[in-house]
Every structure is written in structure tokens, then in C-alpha cells.
Amino acid sequence: MQALCLPSIPGTAHATPGRQWNRNALAPKHSRRTTNCKPTQCRPRVYLKVTSDTSIPVNPQGVSKDRSHTTDYVVIGSGVGGLSCAGLLARYGYQVTVCESHSLPGGAAHAFEREGYIFDSGPSFYSGISSFPSVNPLGQVLDALDKPLKCETYNRWICHLPEGTFTCVAGAEDYRRELERVGGAATAREWERVEEFMAPLSEAAASLPAAALRADPLLITTLPAFLPSLLKSGPRAALLQAPFKTLLDMVGVKDDFLRRMMDLECFVLSGVPANGTISAEMTFMFGERNRPGSTIDYPIGGSGAVVGALVDGLEENGGKLLVNAHVEQVLVGANGRAEGVQLRSSKGGGGGAVINATRGVISNASVWDTERLLPSGALPQVYKQEVEDTPECGSFLHLHLGIDASDLPEDLDCHHVVVNDWSLGVDAPRNVIVISIPTVFDADMAPPGKHVVHAYTAGSEPWSEWVGMDRTSKEYKDKKAEAVECLWVALERVIPDIRSRAEVTLEGTPLTHQRFLRRHHGTYGPAIEAGKGTFPGPGTPIPGLYRCGDSTQPGIGLPAVAASGMIAANTLAPVWKHWELLSKIKAW
After folding, report:
1. Using an 8 Å Cβ cutoff, are 75 and 96 in contact?
2. CA distance 545 to 124
3. Which of 12, 237, 503, 567 is buried most, with the most CB atoms less than 10 Å from its CB?
């Protein structure tokens, strides 16, 4: 199962301005469960608190005296895409500084703590990070940075559908049997035809590792080794760039239940149904999930452990991460080239610190937020119009709960997906809800006898419902309580008495995402539908300015943003260093 990468909800572990987190602030005890890593290699570091910045001088109040310096590259934003790019650039030998506006690293994947509960702010599903070599882009980045993770592996999650309970299992035969049990024999027969049709495409999609990609002519030196596997799918390979609905149409899928399930699978993965999800993404996912022995991973320590591993990889290769470092503007020289960034000034100060970038600036911010960081007139008008015209996914509603776990079943499943009404469409607001109970796998994320619960709408909440509201008003608080009622109702399908069990309750809305992620409209990302448009590469019209993250290829989702970071870093690195990295992670 590919990972959802969702915007976050705030915690209370806010940093003193100008400081950096404590790498050892909270490291959960080793799980008693079997994992795929040796504990000595994989103790997770979950960054929840801050200490003095070790790389930039600070005064006793924790506010940087002057963070100005010169580096090779500045990366704006410490989301998974930005950290992947920065870590690999540092590994390639460049000086790299990452500027994070928040007090904690990780962007949409950061972790936070409240009253002893550790909450994942975003990602719920992971795969391909528990062992190396990996076909998963995030696994490839962790491998390149020598950062294995301790993981709990499992193979199922529960869908609560209008038809009843559907148990999704990693494994082709188990999945087919469940389709037949819930949908009937006709559903299973059509799925078998889809599997047969997808088989060569799944092999082709998996045969080209994201680590091999770069967005320059030197791609011809890294791509040929993988062409034989790509060519095995023949003319059918052109379908990899088509919407997954086109593939289903070619197979002749008529079964309503199978169509609905494919829409759900696409939406949970990419934020759009089958008519907008690229076939390469789905064929890769099904190929990975349905191979013999396939499992799903949960990193011990949660998403914070993933972020911690990426930050450690950056710093161990000489890179720097600055938190509470809000980029006010990308600096563009008289020659039209991006030359660095200016940070927001501290209270009572003058102009903010300037970080000069001799080689370039890489923005992990969204396409809309990146455009706002540029000086007036820096972008060609045609490009500005393209930015304004980029469609956007919806935002999110969240409930983060700390609950009493007394007398709950020991075999409680971690992940659940609730669909309320097929007729509304999977992308209808508040219709599909995802639930995660990570303490099923890592009890150290909550006090003894407690569970962490996270429920959220899957990128479908309209920004228009919330725009202009005052977050301190009674109107907002009442609307928020009314909005998250759908999450409570969904949770009651898993834990019927969950309301009475809740001891910590945190609610989040699109305004939460906009505020804490500095994210345009709190959006999941661009809603670029396959067949109607393509995500751009890392380049921009401004020399020296590059991009990575979910506004660039391959698109939305945790594996995709990790891939985007790799593509950007590889493009900027000498090709011989790129070859060495491919050899290191056994990609060829």
C-alpha cells in the first residue's frame, strides 16, 4: 500500500523561536514485536522538542543573532520531498541548508506530542521501507542515506463499505477472494482479467526505479539499463501515462462494485478517482502489494521516525536544517538568476537573515506558495497564469484522539477506511474517512493502557466552506464541531463507545493546515488529472530555481514526493555520482 501524505494538525510542542529540535528528545522504547531491522541499527529518533541550534549561533532567548551564511543550495521546506532532495544533495557532496518555517521538521509528515500521546500528523500507510533494496522511492532514499528503520509489518486493513466489511489483504489471491465474497463471482472474474492485463505493466512500472531518473539529457546514461524490462510490455506501455479508468475500459470492466473499489483505491492513493489517476501509479501499487509475501510497514516511532531518519541523513552528510526559519522571499539577481533567500526578520529586528546560494534554490513549497515567494515581475506572465490555473485538491478534517484502551480487543486492526455512500462519489466531501490506530503496533506512542487514534477525511474538504472565518470565533468553533461529527460517526463503526473513551481531543480544519503548513488553502496538492495534464519536472523559468514535492513529478503521495526529491537532486548532481548512488542501492 502506498503512503498517504496528508497535511498536519498542530501539537503543543512548539519551539522557542530560532532554535533547533533535540534529536534525542523522545525515542520510543524498542517494540517487543519482530521487525525486519536490527535494533542497534534502527532505534528511531522522533523529533518533538527543540534545543539550542548547534549550527547557527543563538542568544540566550533562543533567537538567532544572525543566520546569514553562504551555501551551495538552499531548500525551502522540510517536507519529505525537501528532506529527500537535501539529504541526497548533501550525500553528493554539496553544502545544503534547509529552511523550515515550522518549529518542527517534516512538513505534512511531522509528529507532535500532547499529554504523553505521540500523533502522526499525516502519513498512515507505508510500504517498502522495512528492508533494502526497495522499489519504493522513500525506501531508496533511506537506503542511499544508510538509514534503515525499525518497522512492524502487517498485511491487512479494513474497509467499511455500504455493502459491509471488506478486508483488504496484501496478496493477490486473498484480495481476489474478498472481491468475490463481497461483490460476487462476476466481480472476481473481471478482476482476474484486470490483473492479467496489468501484469506486464506492473513489471514495467516497477522496473524503472525512481532513483534512476533525472530531468536532463544525461537521463540517456542512467535509463538504458532498465529499457529491456520496460519494453517487455510492448505497445501497452503507452497506457502507463493514461488514466487508470482508460485501462479498466480497455479490459471491459462492467461490474459496478469493482469500478467503485478501483475508484476508492485510486482516491486513497492519489486524491482523485480512477478517471484522474495515472495508470503507472496504480499498476505499480498493485504489483507491489500483490506480490508473494508482500507486507505493509509501520515505522516504530511513527511518521516522526521517518522524518528523523531523513534529517539524520542530511546532517550526517554535512547538511543543515534551520527551524523557525520562515523564507520571506527568494532573492533573484539582476541577471534573473535565483541567488538565495531572505528569512523573515525577528521581532524588533530589521531585515531578516540572508542565505546566499551559489548553485541554486530548491522549493519544496506548493506551486502557489512558491510563486508568492518570488519578487514581482520575476516570473513570465504566461507561467504566472499557469500557476493560477492549476486545479487544487480539497483539504482535510481531522480528529486526533488519545483514548482509554481498557477492554478493547487485542486484535484491533490499525487501519480502516469508511465509505458512507457510493452514489456521492469517493471524492465527495466527508464521504470517505481514513482511520489509523498506530498504538496497535507501537504502544510507546501513548501512555500505558491508552491508544492513539487519528481519523481524517481524505483530501475532500472544500476550502470555500472555511475561507475568511475567524479561528477564535464561536462561529468557527461551532462549525468545526459540526464538521468533525462525520469522523466521530465513522470511528463508532470501529470502536462504538469511543466518545466516552476520549481523553485528548484535537480537531483540525483547512484553516489548521493553512496556518501550520503555510499551505495554500490547506490543499492536498494539485488536482492534475491523468490525460488532462502532467505534473512538471524540477525546472522553472528562473535560472537557479528548482522545485520538488507534490507540485512536481510524479505527483501526490509519500512515495511520489520522495521520488520528486530524488529527481531534483539527481538532476543537479554529476552523472558519475548518480551512477555510484545507483550501485550503492543496488538499483542496477
Report:
1. yes
2. 32
3. 567
The 3-state DSSP class for residue 307 equals helix
If one counts every other C-beta atom within 10 angstroms of the C-beta of residue 546, the result is 26
0.70 surpassed by pTM: yes
Q: CA dihedral in degrees (282, 582, 549, 529; nearest 10)?
A: -30
**Percent of residues, the chain, with pLDDT higher than 70:** 88
Q: What is the pLDDT averaged over residues 207-222?
A: 93
Please name the amino acid found at residue 99.
C
Q: Are 344 and 100 in contact (CB under 8 A)?
A: no
266, 237 Cβ separation under 8 angstroms: no
The conformation of residue 29, written as its DSSP 8-state character, comes to P
Whether the predicted pLDDT of 13 surpasses 50: no
- Beta-sheet pairing, 415-419 with 156-161: parallel
**DSSP label of 532:** T
Cβ 24 vs Cβ 45: under 8 Å: yes
How far apart, in whole angstroms, are the C-alpha atoms of residue 3 and residue 269?
7
CA distances from 376 to 336, 372, 379, 394 (A): 12, 9, 8, 28
Q: Helices (H) and strands (E) in the chain — how many of each?
A: 19, 20
Give ∠ CA 108-113-119 in degrees, rounded to 5: 50
What are the grid coordinates assigned to 497, written together?
463507545
Whether the predicted pLDDT of 296 surpasses 80: yes
Q: State the distance between the two ends of the chain, measured CA to CA, in whole angstroms.
A: 24
- 18 vs 411, residue with greater confidence: 411
| Distance in angstroms (rounded) separating the CA atoms of residues 169 and 294 | 9
Model pLDDT for residues 245-255, shown as the tens digit of each residue: 999 999 999 99
Q: What is the mean pLDDT of residues 377-396?
A: 92
CA 61 to chain centre: 34
Beta bridge partners of 526: 392
Phi, psi for 231 (deg, rounded to 5): -75, -15
Rounded CA separation 23/28 (Å): 12
Which residue, among 435, 491, 119, 83, has the nearest Cα to 268 in the 3D structure? Answer: 435
Interval 141-173: pLDDT, tens = 999 999 999 999 999 999 999 999 999 988 899
Q: Which of 508, 510, 420 shows the shortest CA–CA distance to 465? A: 510
Lowest mean pLDDT among 31-40, 101-110, 127-136, 380-389: 31-40
| Separation in Å, CA 433 to CA 268, 386, 414, 428, 516 | 10, 32, 14, 11, 22
> Does the pLDDT of residue 21 top 60, yes or no?
no
Indicate the SS3 state at residue 550.
coil
User: What is the arithmetic mean of pLDDT over 116-137?
Assistant: 87
Cα separation values, 470 from 11, 102, 507, 511, Å: 20, 21, 15, 9
In whole angstroms, give the CA distance from residue 508 to residue 477: 11
* Alpha-carbon dihedral sign for residues 15, 20, 25, 26: positive
pLDDT at 23 over 70: no
